[in-house]
């Protein structure tokens, strides 16, 4: 993810209630970070005990007011079940399918307390939702 215009002492980006570790890019107010998650629960998988993390709910949390000021929700597939089994015919159809998986109005309502992000040694700027914490 790429975030611009963020004041890190006041705002934090969360995904499913956990803070995303962000790395400054060198430009003022610009940060990058990543989220690793499990999208599907297959019948024969490598780790059957790890739950599915979808849909992903991203929030921009104001630490001073302890509220989510903005956010969105990302679905792995179309939230209305309108999944196509064919490949898109051009880039416009592919982009429209990607945009249909986002919902701008579905962020966390009410009081939200955001903690500091936990960083792993292997990937310090990636939030791994698959780990049980």
What does this structure look like?
By secondary structure, this protein is mainly beta. The chain has one domain (2-39, 49-128). Helices cover 8% and strands 29% of the residues. It has one helix at residues 91-100; strands spanning 2-4, 11-15, 18-19, 23-24, 30-32, 34-36, 56-62, 67-74, 102-103, 126-128. The radius of gyration is 16 Å and the shape is globular. The chain starts with a strand and ends in a 5-residue tail after the last strand.
Report how far the terminal alpha carbons are from each other.
22 Å
Note the total helix count: 1
Beta fraction? 25-35%
What is the number of domains? 1
Shape verdict:
globular
Tell me which oligomeric state these chains represent: single chain
Arithmetic mean pLDDT: 87
Order of helices and strands: EEEEEEEEHEE
In angstroms, what is the radius of gyration?
16 Å
**Strands, count:** 10
Largest sheet: 5 strands, antiparallel
- Contiguous runs where pLDDT drops below 50 for at least 5 residues: none
What structural class do the secondary elements suggest? mainly beta
Binned, the helix content reads under 10%
Strands of the largest sheet, in order across it? 3-2-7-8-9
């Amino acid at each position: 993810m790429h975030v611009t215009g963020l004041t890190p002492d006041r705002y934090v980006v969360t995904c499913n209630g956990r803070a995303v570790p962000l790395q400054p890019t060198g430009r003022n107010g610009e940060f990058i970070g990543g989220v690793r998650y499990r999208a599907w629960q297959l019948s024969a998988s490598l780790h059957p005990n790890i739950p599915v993390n979808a849909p992903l709910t991203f929030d921009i949390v104001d630490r001073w007011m302890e509220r989510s000021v903005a956010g969105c929700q990302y679905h792995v597939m179309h939230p209305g079940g309108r999944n196509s089994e064919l490949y898109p015919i051009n880039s416009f159809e592919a982009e429209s399918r990607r945009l249909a998986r986002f919902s701008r109005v579905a962020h966390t309502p009410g009081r939200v307390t955001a903690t500091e992000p936990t960083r792993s040694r292997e990937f310090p700027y990636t939030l791994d939702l698959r780990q049980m914490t």
